[in-house]
Design goal:
The complex is a heterodimer of chains A (264) and B (301). With 264 residues, chain A is an alpha/beta fold. Chain A has ten helices and ten strands. In chain A, helix 6 (151-162) runs parallel beside helix 7. The chains are: A alpha/beta (264), B mainly alpha (301). Chains A and B meet through helix 2 and helix 4 of A and helix 6 and helix 7 of B. Chain A: Residues 2-249 form the ABC transporter domain.
Chain lengths: 264, 301
């Protein structure tokens, strides 16, 4: 279970560039829930994800995961319980290493690394089995460097890697945004399957409102560093993209009037 | 070149193979351009010589101690970078210049002769084979053992983590790797190898000298560049072998250039020759047909 309590994040504090990225976020994601996050540019959705991953400096407030206070944990320590898929397919994998070596790295995420060989005997067959599910023929290319794969293939591999080992939380940062529509659909479908099968608590940031509503079971919208909308269950089931769009436009309009107030 | 010269060049080639392995680890694996080696090479020599001469240590132990001192130096550089965010190149320069003073302290002077004392090469004196033949064989064996250890290490869980930390730090962190710690150990390890090379070099040369570190960084880097541009470096084994071959070839290239009378070069021109060789290797690496394109472009003009 993720509990974010009254988290504030300010970038470049005390300088003319000061930006309040998050202004008091409260969010609780129960175990096993698949949450989607939307919002315009600069709304704070990516910052919120970075707060969970440990990349954004929390000014005040707390982040708890399964009852543990992880607010001050460094990224690599959180990685034992939180896995992550990046927006850029190049970020999630190591292109100089082979597919097999990348999976060996992912195995090391949840269990201590040692001076034994990283690629253990049975790891090869298990990995081959896992990548076979993707239907991309990668099971025959385990010793190819990841740099040889296409963006979609790399993203699919990142996703499988993120689902390696007993982690409890999966963070997805617009992980289909850099892919062509067909590959994006494929990666999204794979995401749904994996989250479902492993019963992960997942948080997905997305730009696509259709994607936000059709994936997972709860949607929140960020606006100017705050959560302005939180829908789940029947309320969400009855929503169409138009409703969200309407809401979106309304908040954008407010922003405009706010600005005109400031300027005028 | 006489046989004596060839064996001597081979000898230094193998010693600098260790420096090249260190440079490979920092520049290629960790993506950490490390200039500490300018100081850690003479540090290894100074520690080893001082321990043998002043404290009467066993030469093997003294050589190992030189390596440990190198590890500490590399660790300190990485610490300045990781903990205090000092630019890696600057951190290396800071360590290198401070080591210059430290080395003078350790040797209580600008050099420490190793004449008339027992060195690791004396262990092979009893077989009736002259030292100038045994020592290149011994140094080749040492270099190959280090190469094998580096190879094994880079395939362990830790080694794989180190490779990821250098190649893609964000991904490494997201996979639970403490990137800062990997830099500390990796740069330490690279400097341990460099200092080991320094300790061995001092024992061949017959003295440790405060100035012997000048140009070591470029020699190490040159070996990596020459080796990996001539040979395939697809796997770790190929790349590390290429580094050692590069170090030996590089030494021969320098020796030949200095020996060629028609060029009129003197021993003091060694740094210039180094710079020219590295520049040529880089031009060749710039693209497979770097040279060809260069000359073609000249024709067109």
């Amino acid at each position: 279970m993720i509990e974010i309590k009254d988290v504030h994040v300010t970038f470049n504090k005390g300088t003319p560039l000061e930006t309040k990225a998050l202004r008091g976020i409260n969010l609780t994601v129960p175990e096993g829930q698949f949450l989607t996050v939307i919002g315009s540019n600069g709304a704070g959705k990516s910052t919120a994800l970075n707060v969970l991953a440990g990349l954004a400096p929390v000014e005040s407030g707390s982040v708890r995961l399964d009852g543990q206070d992880i607010t001050n944990w460094p990224v690599h320590r959180r990685a034992r319980i939180i896995s992550r898929v990046f927006q850029d397919p190049k970020m999630g994998t190591c292109e100089d290493l082979t597919i097999m070596e990348n999976f060996a790295l992912a195995h090391g995420r949840t269990k201590p690394r040692g001076f034994r060989f990283a690629i253990e005997k049975d790891m090869r067959e298990k990995t081959a089995e896992r990548v076979k599910v993707l239907g991309l023929g990668l099971e025959n290319r385990l010793d190819d460097k990841v740099g040889l794969l296409s963006g979609g293939q790399r993203q699919a591999v990142s996703l499988l890697m993120a689902a390696t080992g007993p982690s409890s939380v999966l963070l997805l940062d617009e992980h289909t945004a850099a892919l062509d529509p067909k590959t994006a659909d494929f990666v999204l479908e794979t995401t749904r399957t994996i989250v479902d099968r492993l019963k992960l608590t997942a948080v997905m940031v997305t730009h696509s409102m259709a994607q936000a509503l059709s994936t997972g079971e709860r949607t929140v919208m960020f606006h100017r560093g705050k959560i302005i909308f939180d829908a789940s269950g029947e309320e969400r089931a009855g929503m169409a993209v138009e409703d969200l769009l309407h809401l979106f436009k309304k908040t954008q309009g407010e922003e405009l009037s706010d600005d005109s107030l400031l300027l005028g | 070149m006489s046989l004596y010269e060839i064996l001597g060049t081979l000898e230094t080639g193998f010693v600098f193979g260790l420096v090249a392995l260190g440079a490979y680890l920092t520049f290629r694996i960790l993506d950490f351009p490390d200039l500490t080696v300018e100081g850690s090479f003479p540090l290894g020599a100074a520690v080893c010589a001082a321990l043998i001469v002043t404290l009467g240590w066993n030469p093997w132990l003294a050589t190992a101690a030189g390596g440990v001192a190198g590890f500490a130096a590399g660790w300190a550089t990485a610490y300045l970078n990781v903990r205090f965010r000092i630019l890696h190149i600057l951190a290396g320069i800071l360590l290198a210049i401070s080591l210059y003073s430290i080395n003078l302290r350790i040797m209580s002077g600008p050099n420490k002769p190793l004449l008339g004392v027992e060195t690791v090469f004396d262990a092979f004196g009893g077989f009736g084979v002259p030292t100038y033949i045994v020592s290149p064989i011994f140094l080749g064996a040492v270099t190959l053992v280090v190469l094998a250890l580096v190879n094994l290490f880079l395939h362990t869980g830790w080694g794989m983590a180190m490779r990821a930390a250098g190649a893609n730090p964000a991904m490494a962190e997201a996979n639970g790797i403490n990137v800062g710690r990997m830099k500390l150990y990796g740069v330490g390890l690279a400097n341990a190898m460099t200092a080991l090379a320094g300790a061995l070099f001092a024992q061949i040369f017959g003295a440790a000298d405060a100035y012997m570190g000048i140009g070591v960084i470029i020699v190490g880097l040159a070996s990596v560049i020459v080796g990996t541009s001539l040979l395939s470096s697809r796997t770790i084994l190929q790349a590390t072998l290429a580094c050692i071959v590069g170090a030996v070839l590089y030494r021969f290239a320098v020796a030949l250039a200095l020996n060629a009378d028609f060029l009129g070069l003197r021993a003091s021109d060694v740094q210039l020759v180094t710079a020219v060789l590295v520049a040529l290797a880089l031009i060749a690496q710039y693209s497979g047909s770097g040279f060809k394109r260069f000359f073609k472009g000249a024709d067109k003009k």
